[in-house]
Amino acid sequence: MSWVGLVVVFPFLMAYAASSDLLTMLIPNWISLALVAAFAVVVAVSGLGWTEIGWHVGAALLTLSVTFTLFAFGVIGGGDAKLAAATTLWIGMGNMLDYLLVASILGGGLTLLLLAARAHPLPSPLRRLPFAMHLHDGKTGVPYGIALAAAGLAVVPYTALWSDLYRL
């Protein structure tokens, strides 16, 4: 049953984080907390060893320290920092750099797409959508949670955690 966390709960929370960031430019704290809690449940029923758990926690703490520093300097949002760390908890140390690289590439693409879209007037049908108006505003940041969530979904199938649960 531990596979449910990886193939149902993790993707649901990633999709929710991405859509929340897109629509509101916020990633609620409960999403990151739910990711941590769900990871704990998956670990408890999967039989993952203490060493492996330590590497996953270490990856999350390392990511949190870097992303919190970026948040402190105003580079990323606090929700992005927490989401990246909670996602890295699932990804683990072995695939952490893959996750961060994919997130950076997707985030860069998303940023360029938004800059290009903001250089043109918003089509009139989209002007009726408050989130589209907010997203189109040049003073608004980039909903980087979309890139973080997409990268998590792209990388998690290549992790040891996925391989271990897939064998069950």
UniProtKB/TrEMBL annotation:
Signal peptide: none annotated. It comes from the Bacteria. Residues 9-111 form the Prepilin type IV endopeptidase peptidase domain. InterPro entries: Preflagellin_Peptidase, Prepilin_IV_endopep_pep. Pfam families: Peptidase_A24. The keyword Cytoplasm does not apply. Its main location: membrane. It is a multi-pass membrane protein. The chain crosses the membrane at residues 27-50, 57-79, 99-120, 141-162. Keywords: Cell membrane, Hydrolase, Membrane, Transmembrane, Transmembrane helix. The keyword Acetylation does not apply. Its EC number is 3.4.23.43. GO terms for cellular component: plasma membrane. GO terms for molecular function: aspartic-type endopeptidase activity. It is found in: Cell membrane. This is Peptidase. It comes from Methylobacterium brachythecii.
